[in-house]
Every structure is written in C-alpha cells, then in structure tokens.
Amino acid sequence: MGETRSPQPVNVICAVLAGRKEWFDEAKDRLEKALGPADLESDAWPFDFTDYYAQEMGGSLLRRLYSFQELIAPDNLVAIKHTTNRLEKDLGRALAGSPERPVNLDPGYVSLGKLVLATTKDYAHRVYLGGGIYAEATLRWRDGAFEPWEWTYRDYRTENYRAFFARVRSLYQRKLEGRAGQ
Fold it and tell me: How much is the pTM?
C-alpha cells in the first residue's frame, strides 16, 4: 500500500485573453492583488485560433501569459479558478466601453512534469476537482521540452506558448531549489 504525502508546491500561471492591450494592465493589477506579484509575462500575441469567444468578447483578441512568484499547493487551483471567475465579472463592470466579457482569465499551474489548466467545463480528459472546477494536463514535460497532448488547444501547441512555459518551469525549478536550501 502506498503512503500518502503532500505534493510539491506548484507555480501558478494565468492566461489572459483581451480585446485591447490596455485591459491587460487592469487584469494584471487585479491578478497580482489576488495571487501575489507576477515574475514573468509574455508579449501580447494575436489570438486567431478560434472564433469561440467572438460573440461575447469581440474580435481581434490578444493573449498574454503570466507566471506568479508565490508557489501554492496544487489543490488551491479550485479557489484560484473561483477567484479568476469573480475577477472576470469585476473587470466586465469596471472597464468602460468594453464588451460583455472584456477579459478571459484561465488559471493553472506548472509543475516539473506538466502544465495544468483549470476549467468549468467537463470533458473526457478532464478530472473533477470540486466546487464545479475541472482540471486538465494541457502540456507534458518530455525530453527537455513541453509537448502537447491530442486534446491540447491549438494556441498552447505553439512554440511561443511552450517556450514561455519552459521558462516558467526553469524559474519554478530554481524556486524549489531555493526552498530546499532553507
């Protein structure tokens, strides 16, 4: 029989989708108040992989990825997803001249072996965590790089995204080493 033990802490990330570059600043400010300081952020990349969000968010969307300094227990992902859902609603009320949903916040975490994303939508490859939240391993670490699964979203398959998450993983590894030295 295996013995239970606490998992290693993980590195929180959040993917932000928005129709205007200036909305990233407001989203980042609110995310940092909730999750602590960001320690990495990507450029703003065009999000032209699907028109799934067009009706509620408009067209010409951009994506920016953030990593956060503080490590968390993986089971905190449920609370973080609830927080980002609340922040989306708050931003919808706060951003003047915005569509119904000006930003989309997709939290998750990077561990040494994978990138996990939280979602409210069930599907065959997703695992229920509780509180109406599911998780999926979106990328896996293999042979020195993140690689996609058959279900990985098209944007997360791109070199930009995978390289960003590899940088997060490297930073995360240094954070773990720093904790071990304490």
Answer: 0.95
